[in-house]
Write a structure and sequence with these properties.
mainly alpha, 56% helix, single chain, 93 residues
């Protein structure tokens, strides 16, 4: 049951990605996944890696949404010139 559930999650996400591929500038070489579902479930992480065919990176920062909002705020406040500069603060497990 769990195996089927995780396979369903991975294939559903891949289907959405596959629909967007014509709009993307290049093939992806890795994927960033966030949230406790993938952070605490190594089986799901492995399934996603297998379905997408790329390595999955998980941010080391546990509250990804909050951390992202902070990066936007720092950029808006002028601490960083661009969001790309602020994103360099992101570390991965």
């Amino acid at each position: 049951l769990c195996d089927g559930f995780m396979t369903g999650i991975a294939t559903e996400l891949y289907g959405l990605y596959d629909e967007m591929r014509p709009c993307l500038p290049a093939e992806m070489s890795y994927m960033i996944a966030s949230g406790n579902g993938v952070r605490f479930n190594s089986s799901l992480k492995k399934r996603l890696e297998r379905v997408f065919g790329v390595k999955i990176l998980i941010p080391a920062h546990k509250e990804e949404g909050c951390f992202g909002a902070l990066l936007y705020a720092l950029t808006a406040a002028g601490v960083f010139g661009t969001l790309a500069e602020a994103q360099k603060l992101i570390k991965y497990e």
